[in-house]
Design a protein that fits this description.
The protein is mainly β. About 5% of the residues lie in helices and about 45% in strands.
């Protein structure tokens, strides 16, 4: 698995990151929660399951929320855990 360039901190210990650009030919974008606890190396903790198709990368706000763009590019969707 290759990571995209776009990612961001959801909070002090969690990054949300994507594998979307590398996986486009294989289906929907994939976004992951990654634990960044200082006690050890980063660990993938969960794959995000969206209730409908999204497109592109992920942008984090830093307050536990992030947004994605609709597949048609005409709407932003804000998410939280």
């Amino acid at each position: 698995m290759l990571w995209d360039y776009g990612c961001g901190f959801l909070d002090e210990e969690t990054v949300i990151a994507g594998t979307t650009e590398q996986d486009e030919e294989y289906g929907q974008p994939r976004h992951w929660l990654v634990s960044t606890d200082a006690a050890g190396p980063p660990q993938v903790s969960a794959r995000i399951a969206y209730p409908f198709p999204i497109s592109g990368g992920v942008k984090a706000f830093g307050d536990g929320t992030w947004y994605t763009v609709s597949t048609t590019g005409d709407a932003l969707h804000v998410w939280s855990r």
